Amino acid sequence: MTKNQGKAIEMKKIMSDMDLELMDLTDLDIDIDVIEDGKTFEENALKKAYTYHKATGLPCIADDSGLEVDYLKGAPGVYTARYAGDSATDQENIMKLLREMESAPEDQRNARFVCAIAFVLADGTAIITRGVCDGKIAHEMRGSNGFGYDPVFYVPEYNMTFAELDDMVKNRISHRAKALEQMKKYIKKLDVML
Ligand SMILES: O=P(O)(O)OP(=O)(O)OP(=O)(O)OC[C@H]1O[C@@H](n2cnc3c(O)ncnc32)[C@H](O)[C@@H]1O
Ligand SMILES: [Mg+2]
Question: Does the annotation mark 27 as catalytic?
Answer without folding.
Answer: no
